Amino acid sequence: MSLSSVLSADAIDSAIKDCQAPDSFCPKKFFQLCGLSKKSPQDVKKVFGILDNDASGFIEEEELKFFLQRFRPGARVLTDKETKAFLSAADDDSDGKIGAEGYTDSLLD
């Protein structure tokens, strides 16, 4: 399954273009621009599963670095600062990884 089966290609392109510059990524804005914040809980869970590259049930820091590339191959890698800020915002229990619940909460906050 690809992200374009849940989100429109145009919305993904718009979200990627908005954060092309290093240190310009804002998860909440990205989720709004790509349309994910308006999707059903089932669609959000599908997207989480796609982003969970190793199917561990969590998105770890290493996977977060390549977050934008999961939406559009060739997109930039998140900077360390962006990765840590994203992880901090969505890691509910401070275990260094994002579970599906933390991911969903980061979309709705």
Automatic annotation (TrEMBL):
It comes from the Eukaryota. Residues 39-74 form the EF-hand domain. The keyword Calcium applies. One of its GO terms (molecular function) is calcium ion binding. Pfam families: EF-hand_7 (PF13499). Ca(2+) 1 binds at D52, D54, S56, F58, E63. SMART domains: EFh (SM00054). Ca(2+) 2 binds at D91, D93, D95, K97. One of its GO terms (cellular component) is cytoplasm. Gene3D superfamilies: EF-hand (1.10.238.10). Keywords: Calcium, Metal-binding, Muscle protein, Repeat. Signal peptide: none annotated. In muscle, parvalbumin is thought to be involved in relaxation after contraction. It binds two calcium ions. Belongs to the parvalbumin family. This is Parvalbumin. It comes from Poecilia latipinna (sailfin molly). The lineage of its organism: Eukaryota, Metazoa, Chordata, Craniata, Vertebrata.
